Amino acid sequence: MKYFNFYRESNDFTDILNDITLKKKILETITWLNYLRIGINDDDRIASYVTLKYGDEMRNNLTEDYSPIPNIDYIPVRR
Length: 79
Prior knowledge:
The chain has helices spanning 14-17, 20-23, 44-54, and strands spanning 2-7, 26-32, 35-40. It is an alpha+beta fold. It has one domain (2-57). A hairpin with a 2-residue loop joins strand 2 and strand 3 (35-40).
């Protein structure tokens, strides 16, 4: 199963959930504040369709990257 995460400030995802092509393929739906997560079968055609049509609203990482940044958070020792 592939999962897709979407973010919208309006919190209105009816166009995604009512899409004729996706409606039959969505197996799992989770919503929370301004986010939607759908799970579909491992079908490359549907994954491509979702990416092309709704790619602007897709989010890959739901958490921020807290890894240290060189020369800002620390100074690397050069030898």
